[in-house]
UniProtKB/TrEMBL annotation:
Pfam families: Arrestin_C, Arrestin_N. Belongs to the arrestin family. One of its GO terms (cellular component) is rhabdomere. SUPFAM superfamilies: E set domains (SSF81296). GO terms for molecular function: G protein-coupled receptor binding. Residues 193-351 form the Arrestin C-terminal-like domain. It comes from Clunio marinus. PANTHER family: ARRESTIN, PHOSRESTIN-2. This is Phosrestin-2. The lineage of its organism: Eukaryota, Metazoa, Ecdysozoa, Arthropoda, Hexapoda. One of its GO terms (biological process) is photoreceptor cell maintenance. The keyword Transferase does not apply.
Amino acid sequence: MVVNFKVFKKCSPNGKINLYMGKRDFVDHISAVEPVEGIIVIDEEYVRERRKIFGQIVCSFRYGREEDEVMGLNFQKELFLASEQIFPSTGKSEKQLSKVQDRLLKKLGENAFPFTFNIPPSAPASITLQQAKDETGEPCGVQYYVKIFAGESETDRTHRRSTVSLGIRKVQYAPSKQGNQPCTVVRKDFMLSPGELEMEVTLDKQLYQHDEKIAINLCIRNHSNKTVKKIKAMVQQGVDVVLFQNGQYRNTISSMETEEGCPLQPGSSLQKVIYLMPSLNSVAQKRGIALDGQLKHQNTNLASTTLLASPDQRDAFGIIVSYAVKVKLFLGALGGELAAELPFVLMHPKPGVKSKLISADSQAEVETFRQETIDQEDED
């Protein structure tokens, strides 16, 4: 059976180095991350001159606006998670080739050379923070890219003419099993007043997919002498920029305020279901919303919940995202309010695995990326 498999290609501005990769999303399984595999094709002149070609996995963390970088300030840090000389081969690490690599090597000829890099499991997820409509420049967040360049050493100053950079993402998918059904009961008593107000909040499940409705089940029992005037339910996104001690904030993604069933008089009870759907469409212009790491020419969505093996596994250069449903009962100016909160998980399901047979007559569907404009003063 002949199978077409997709390949991403990018060429250096001087045309001497071509980068081929079978995919750009690499799944973090919490205990390990899928290896980053690819092929480079080197021009005959570089091969003949034995020019050294290096490859790196770079994690770029921007924690401040590019337009605020004045007087030498720089709000961006780059972490080199992997680095290796690809050509000439040093023979230090002989890794088994994947089927895509093996097939591309046969198709691309003798000047094609494979590479494999490993991303540490503790590395942060690909997340960007949404910019305001009037903001320009690179968005804040964590981005990854594969960098291939010609030089004398791994630390050599790279020239744009002989450098290829292709963006990739480190992603997580939803676990295969649902967790425990979220449920909480909160109560409020009042000074100088007998009885208490009780609210039970339950979600229909713990794990939701993006753009899926969330059913919030409310059971309110008013054993006090106060009156419930209205009810408000919200889906909130928690963003923790780990680098800063006070870098935690919340965004309201979706909300609903209702007086249906109100006023709830003393001695009464109310059962109600409220539906909310967290979606990027409702906050498309709001600054600071965490989004899944974005690749050029691709749409994105709200950032998925960040799953950690343990609370201590918080990389200092990462952004941790969480979600919670919050429900408030308003009792008027003197009665105050009663609030309950339930965390939940929002993620993409794991894509179905399709077994493909890559045979000798398989065809590669190549998607080519254009290299950014280069500075004229950069030389080989």
